[in-house]
Amino acid sequence: MKAMWNGLWLRHLNRLKGSASFVLLISVLWPTASLLALELPPVSLKDSAPNEWAAAWRDDLKQSNERWIEVSISARTLTAWEGNTPVRSFTVATGRSDEPTLPGVFQIEQKLERAWMEGEDYNIPNVPYTMYYSGNYAIHGAYWHSEFGSAISNGCINLPVGQAAWLFDWADVGTTVIIDP
């Protein structure tokens, strides 16, 4: 997950409890190209319940005016939010049991109008309106199937092309994506 170095990220990081402390090293381009070391209080991400983490993040977003995306894997829905107001909801296809969609809190890292996606059992050119949120995981349009509401993808979140176009235009790089089990 791409680190979000803003008050929201730090507020949630401070909610976590654990026994091992860690040091984050942040490259800072000062005129001398120095390196800044920031020691945070003891934290262990494995001790944090993912549902509590996402719930706390969601609560904060609902009290803001920020745009954010919520995906329910079990309901196979995606909702675009502005603060506490749901703007639009869509039925989506999510990952199969052998290649699941991963739950968690992410940010849109990259947007491409067209992408080429390939893996062991697929090779799909011109995947429309692709928004990567964690490595090769993305929210995107799917022209090769119409089985929205099912678990058919290789882990990505698939939308009909027209709905993917709307979401692509609505969301920016950095938009928070909360994916619930």
Report what the structure shows.
With 181 residues, this protein is α/β, with parallel strands linked by helices. It has two domains: 1-48, no CATH class; 49-180, L,D-transpeptidase catalytic domain-like, CATH 2.40.440. It contains three helices and 13 strands; from the N terminus they run αββαββββββββββαβ. The chain has helices at 7-15, 50-62, 161-170, and strands at 23-27, 35-39, 67-72, 77-82, 85-91, 94-95, 104-107, 110-119, 122-134, 137-141, 151-153, 157-159, 176-180. Strands 5-4-3-13-7 form a five-stranded mixed beta sheet, with helices on one face. The chain has a four-stranded mixed beta sheet with strand order 8-9-10-12, covered by helices on one side. It has a two-stranded antiparallel ribbon with strand order 1-2.
